[in-house]
Structures are given as structure tokens and as C-alpha cells.
Amino acid sequence: MKLEELARHIIDTNRYMVLGTVDPDGRPRVSPVYFAPDGYGEVFWISSPESHHSRNIAERPEISIVIFDSTVPVGGGAQAVYLLATAG
Q1: Are the beta carbons of 18 and 24 closer than 8 angstroms?
Q2: What is the C-alpha to C-alpha distance for residues 61 and 17, in angstroms, rounded to an integer?
Q3: For a Cys staple, 87 with which of 5, 8, 57, 82, CB 3.0–4.6 Å?
Q4: What is the pLDDT along the chain (88 residues), one digit of tens a residue?
């Protein structure tokens, strides 16, 4: 399977992602969130505007995302999609 096909498969078959943000003091923050893709160019999630990661995004919209199958057993060859994005 080509890398692009593999990435699409991972996005299509998973609904949780890890959202990475940075707080005002420069500390990284990661949060697992449920997501819904809109094709392969955008992903959507719903979070309270008061959540830690939402407040981080309000100040610094640059984020990182990891989508992977968390059900793969340890040593089972887990694969992931890593993204850099701007939240809006």
C-alpha cells in the first residue's frame, strides 16, 4: 500500500486523534479528542471553549495532530498519520 493510501485508511478507520497545543508559557499539551474528517484536508472536533487546549489554540493556533489505531497490540506494528496544522 502506498503511503498516501495508508494515511487515508488510517484517517478513515479511526475517530480519535491526539491534539497537540502549546500553552502561553511554552509548555506542550496533548489531548485525546473525537474527530470527524472532511475529506483529507480538514478535521473537526468539538471542545468547550474553556478547555485547556481551546484556550491554548485561542492564543496560538498552530497545532499538531496524530491519528492512529489505539487498538493495535504492543509490538503489533502501529502506524500513524502525523499532521501540522493551524486551528480555526
Answers
A1: no
A2: 17
A3: 57
A4: 799 999 999 999 999 999 999 999 999 999 999 999 999 999 999 999 999 999 999 999 999 999 998 888 888 878 999 999 999 8
Query: Is the entire prediction scored with pTM above 0.85?
Result: yes
Q: Where are the domains of the chain?
A: 3-86
In the numeric block, which cell numbers belong to residue 84? Answer: 501540522
Q: Can you read off the three cell numbers belonging to residue 35?
A: 474527530
State the Cα–Cα distance between residues 57 and 46, nearest whole angstrom: 13
Return all residues near 77 (Cβ < 8 A) that are at least 6 apart: none
Topology at the third CATH level for domain 3-86: Pnp Oxidase; Chain A (2.30.110)
